Amino acid sequence: MQLLSALLFAAFAFDIVVYGIEWIVATRMGIPKQAHHAGAGPFQWVNVAAVVASAGLWWAARKGYASPARLLTLGLVYEVVICAVISILSTWQHYIQFKTIPNLTWVPAMVILFPLILPGPPGRMLAAAIAAGATVPLGLLVLELTGKVTTISGSGDYVRTSVHSAFAVVFAYLGARVIYRLGREVTAARELGSYHLEEMLGRGGMGEVWRARHRMLARPAAVKLIRPSTVGDRPVRVSEDASRRFEREAQVIARLRSPHTVELFDFGMADNGAFYYAMELLEGLDADTLVRRFGPLPADRTISVLRQICHSLSEAESCGLVHRDIKPANIFLCRYGEYCDFVKVLDFGLVKALGESVGTTKALTKENMIAGTPAFIAPEQALGRMDLDGRADIYATGCVAYWLLTGQLVFTADTPMALLMHHAQTQPTAPSSRAELPIPEALDRLVLSCLAKDPAERPQTARELSRRLSDVDGASAWTEDRARAWWAEHMPAPA
Length: 495
Description:
Elements: H1 2-29, H2 35-38, H3 41-63, H4 68-98, H5 107-117, H6 122-133, H7 135-145, H8 155-189, E1 191-192, E2 195-204, E3 207-214, E4 220-226, E5 229-231, E6 234-236, H9 240-255, E7 264-269, E8 275-279, E9 283-286, H10 287-294, H11 299-318, E10 321-322, E11 331-336, E12 339-345, E13 352-353, H12 358-363, H13 379-382, H14 390-406, H15 416-425, H16 441-450, H17 462-470, H18 480-490
């Protein structure tokens, strides 16, 4: 509806602009107005009314003042009225200029255009198309009865003007059937169990993430899915390895109960073979976007974020799990009930169990490549060691802390392999030497200890890291009131 009203707004406004330019040029140059231009003033008032109506309809559609069903009805009435205006004005203007009835107006084009852009049930679209197409002979009849047009050659002009509209109605109906059927197929494709997909939020290596809504509970959710691929026209089932990794991620999230781990609602497989799981839909932004948009965080806020990350990782450690992909994009800060700056750890797609066999891990790692993100990867992980433990996540958390405090990565390089080598061999620079904001010395040392090449020199558990963070001077300065004030200023809640 917005698109249609915008197009028609531009069309009617263009006619007004052209008329105004011609009038100004003719007036300044003293050119006498031609007969068809001399009487065009009243037509422009009709154009102005159409412009205002189109703008009003665009605004109503944008603001969602009417339900979709009522908006469709309003659009079909708008189609008939616009076609009536076009049929009368174009015929009348053509007659004033040439003293003949035009062979073709813009009405057939409008009749065909509407169902293609504004799809609806074919029966309703056919009724609207017939009514809109009938405005051409009816408009001619009105002009004849009012004496505006007098040289009509019997029924021939009525038949000739009606033929084009009749063809347009047929094409509009056929188009409406095709578009409506495709729309229903798309809707069906967006049904996953009890969830209806509404908007894609992102796409990654493990599939797609959609904003969705539970059909019965009307509860919003984020649905992550992997679709079956296609070869030609034939669907190909999701590979066994991919489905095992996906199912594993869902099972891991379902086991964890930390409030700082994203919560899982449901898991299943759709009729088309797509695997999906539904999790809570969060309102906020990830740590990568946060720093890019608002700059580095002060030390006290960084400590608050890191301690919440540690809460999630500590539970994962107690379950014998290593996340293996801690990075700013997987750290989500959000509003959560009455809390602001509440952290959720996302994406357990690369999780590994302690003591897991090499063969099992390789089978669940695409093409047996090193798992993880090069800019936030522990040295032992970069070297491909399989005996990883929670200290690899401690290193990655140190990289996240570095990003939050400085807005810069620990290491940069031209290639992923060069990044891996830096993490494996190069000693990092202290974050305080690269930060714009002051960093307490204790926090500076703690971040560097997290980035130690030898896992034995790092904090040994997430619980220990959280305790050492709480011992930093000013660790508790970032209060809930300050967090709520920041969110109210920078990311106010939607009405």
